[in-house]
Amino acid sequence: PLPGDLLLAAQQLGRLREHQIAVLAVPGDCDTTPDGEVSALDLLRDLRLVEIPSDSRPTTVEVGKLVLHISCLPWRSGSSNGGPLHRLDYANEADFHLLVAHYPVEGMGGEGGREAVINLDSARALLGVDVLVAGGGDRTMHGRAGATTIAVPGDPALADGTGGFLEIDISRRGLEHIDVIPGLGAVRRLVELPASL
Question: What integer pLDDT is reported at residue 114 of this predicted model?
């Protein structure tokens, strides 16, 4: 990103931090730098403007009496035996566990080939994960695989509105509601105001 983009991001993230709103970031392929170099995401983390959950243990967020665990499955170059899911330990005492993955899920935007995908049978076998937010896919979709809801928010930068941002409502009972807030393709409204106003 350009310096001006970083400045704007830092200012807005600083406003969220002032209001005690947690911002977590999952590194993607564009955030990976050669050894010894620092990415823009690393810079924002070092400035304490974002948190990057570890892929070895979840980040705990307490919302009132609700304990939320967020696990991260960042992108790694190359394929791994057992697929991307084999690296995580999902045992936890959380009221709700959200797993955010850079990888697409087979049949939901990921078809295999050059890029690693999460095998659908592996997703079905997940225990202790309430929602898996997966990467990949140009359009939004969600469904269930075993006991886990899989959500693909799609690319929010698409101008046709097929992608967006995921909105999840949770309670002690689990997932209450899931929806997508449209990204750049959201319906715009033109409001005309007299110049005197």
Answer: 55
